[in-house]
User: Fold this.
Amino acid sequence: MVPPYRGDTEVLDTPELWGDKGIQEIVDYRFSLIRGKVRTNVYAAREGGKLLDTLQEIAMSKHPVDAEAVLTKLPYGVLTLSGEVQPFGPSAPLRSFAASDASVDHRIEDAFYDGDLKAADAVLELYHDEVLVTRIQRAFSLGMFGRKKHRKLVPTRWSITAVDSIISQALIDQIKEHNPIDEYRVYSFSRLDNLFVAVLMPKRWSFEWIEAWFPGTTWNQNPKGDKAEMMGDWEPYQGRTSYPDIGGCYYACRLAVAEHLSQERRQASALVLREIHPGYLLPLGVWLTRESVREMLKTRPQKFDSLRGALDYAMKKLTIPLKKWIETSELLKRELFQKRLRDFIT
Assistant:
């Protein structure tokens, strides 16, 4: 993807820099990027080639580079939207592509040239070296990690989910070694007509993410409807073995929660709720979930001695009543209604 102007263009493809941006501004960023398309073999990452070599060098660069894309025809000006990835702007088949020399980020370069390093290990090393998650995802998509003979090109949305999943699972394995938090905590945050609430409970690790899409939003197109469409997925202490129905945002949220608990060296049972209201006009990708939950967990929480007190406060930040959340939530059902052995000990 190439912008039709020169200058500092890093913000156009770096969601970590979009914290104070509105929907229109983000869409303008993405629509200004012209996308050149070329069909190639998924195993090209093992064999290389002029175009792929250039793209991988750009992915290793510390800063945007000068680039020239020659297209076979005028780009088709339709904004491509997805719930998984950032919007894509106009596109056309690519005739040729060239870029100036890049100032290489040696952290990514070392992982790229290590043909014996497993992809998951490369992802974790880069994360712990403070490389932005979106930069790791971009390099992962270009087949830059893993043992040389096993490397493949990866669809963008798969690379996003893979990186979020790898990092969050490694952090979860670490936080399970720590003690649970001492109280119930409630965090809240709003962004682009999305309401986020997290309830952290003083229990062993478990996690649940629930979304509620209001009428007139992307996944609830009935503007005259009278109820939100709710969906969610969860995992117990042992984890999950299947891909969540709710998609990549599950892992984006799990990463943000695991980061927070890892920094605190504690574990908790985490319930994260999101209401999507009609002001959220277009899906912008799972980065919005990851970055919003990250920001939310940086705020000062309200603390409570009981789950009931925490839930009463959380409902003041949301518009859907508690009864509806309980109907959807596996964690709440277990906490509120499931008996435990200690309940029978007098």
